Design the sequence.
């Protein structure tokens, strides 16, 4: 079994609000840090992305790739690599679990394998950077109270 990197964070919002941000791929460049472009290339009948093209710049890992998404109930989404220039595989999952007080525990697991020779330690570090920045960005976006990314409204 391939080694993977995993981390989690608690977000002060319901799982549905968190999943709303996770599933809005077109806005990934606004909050993920590493994703510079995101284009949904195929959707299911409910409007959920089935394939997404991403332009990624994560330091040691720079690539344009397409991922296939599998929506596992309302609180989990998995993805795997369809095509890439630099990556051999990229598998990940977001798992959401409601916790007391209306918050959500978010677990992000990622496994990356590159086509070029790279020490496992460097791959794990790149995975960790991707995960930590994504979780931090996700938390900030969801907890801003404006998951759609609209301009803040003036208080009354």
Sequence:
């Amino acid at each position: 079994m391939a080694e993977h990197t995993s981390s989690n964070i608690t977000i002060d919002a319901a799982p549905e609000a968190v999943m709303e941000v996770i599933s809005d791929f077109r806005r990934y460049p606004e909050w993920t840090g590493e994703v510079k472009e995101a284009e949904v290339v195929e959707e299911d009948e409910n409007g959920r992305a089935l394939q997404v093209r991403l332009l990624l710049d994560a330091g040691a890992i720079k690539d344009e790739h397409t991922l296939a998404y599998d929506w596992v109930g309302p609180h989990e989404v998995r993805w795997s690599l369809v095509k890439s220039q630099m990556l051999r595989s990229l598998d990940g999952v977001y798992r959401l679990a409601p916790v007391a007080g209306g918050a959500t525990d978010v677990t992000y697991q990622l496994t990356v394998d590159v086509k070029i020779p790279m020490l496992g330690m460097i791959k794990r570090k790149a995975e960790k950077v991707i995960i930590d920045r994504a979780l931090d960005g996700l938390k900030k976006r969801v907890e801003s109270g404006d998951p759609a990314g609209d301009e803040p409204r003036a208080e009354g």
Q: What stands out?
A: Confidence is low (pLDDT under 50) at residues 149-156. The beta strands are 5-11, 35-43, 49-58, 61-71, 76-84, 87-99, 103-114.
